[in-house]
Write a structure and sequence with these properties.
mainly alpha
Amino acid sequence: MLEVALVFVVLLAFIFMGLPVFLSILVTAILFLLFDGIPMGVVIVRMFGSINSLALMAIPFFIIAGNIILHAGITERLMNFANAGVGFMKGGMGHVNIMTSVLFSGKQGSGVADAATTGSILIPAMEKEGYGKDYAVAVTAASAMIAPITPPSIAMILYAYYTGVPVALLFMAGIIPGLMLAVFQMFVNSAMYRWRKYDIPITPFSLKNLLYTGYRSVGALMMPAILIIGVTTGFVTATESGVIAIVYGLFYGFCITKKLKLEMLPKILLQSSITSAVVMMTIAATGVLGNVFVRMHFQTQVLDFALNTLGTPYLAVFFVMFVLIILGLFLDPTVIIAMFSVTVFTIGNAFGFDPVHFGIIMILVMQLGAITPPAGSFLFVACSIGELPLEKSIMPLMPYIGAILVLILVLLFIPPLVTLLPTILFS
């Protein structure tokens, strides 16, 4: 285990030196391979093998779809619908932020895209209404956590790729936890609204406005239904559903909202290419580092510790959660999923946990790092939009992190909340 600890020390040193994450991972892996006398051809083979998969093609497709949706005016309609539905309650704009994430996450599956899209509109809007900037940033970052556990989730696609758990089952299993997370966060928002002594005027509820905004959002609301039904019925794969999302987004932007213009497409494709390249390079580099861990028998040591030293299932699960949360402070969730999915999957199987149930819990735990400093990607995006120093967002974010931890425990001890829909639809 000392060798493994040294790997993480070197990796974190490169990250804190300012190297990009994917480059830090790759350089660390190469250094340890060279130290062991492994030929450099292994690096090329592992990098290519890590991304040589049709299943991973879904990632760039959904990234393109997310950028199209951003420019197609879909988000504004969803926000208007969310505002009509929950904006009349105390803490209305916080509730709108959370509900918009629920609606938006069903289209592109990325927490970073959720934080960037909703944050660019709602952080200034919340600040203008009288909410503290730190609180607006915290709500935006926390609600972006809904995307990774709501289908179609890029995190689920990655987890399915590494573990072999059918992505259709993960998609269906994430629906109830995603909605529960939204409800938990709305309770926190209501409590924080009162604790901060906000007294912001609200817009009275209007059934006419709800029906009108709902009618205008029908096309956008149909999109996640089409994607989920297509994947769960086996009519399309997750990769093909990404293509459908692109086509639907183009149709919606050109023909319905008419906000999408041909001259926007090159910029959209360029932005998507850069994001996709970073993600795929990270996965490729992680494949090399994963090979280093295999040579160090890391998975065997963790499994042996969980099975023979800890012994009891829930104690082992809490140990795994603790390790993943600590790693999440420094590593992006994509890296954690790529490096540790197989290990946690093996531990879950060894203790008899349902693979789908255990997978959803682990995905949620792995994503926690996205809203915790210093490396939280969702938090970083929200702070950048709000022009807020990272440290000022920590305190208002803590109740939301607490709510996520409570949800994880609820899901762990009540498995049907995760497995009910997959059991009904695929029994």
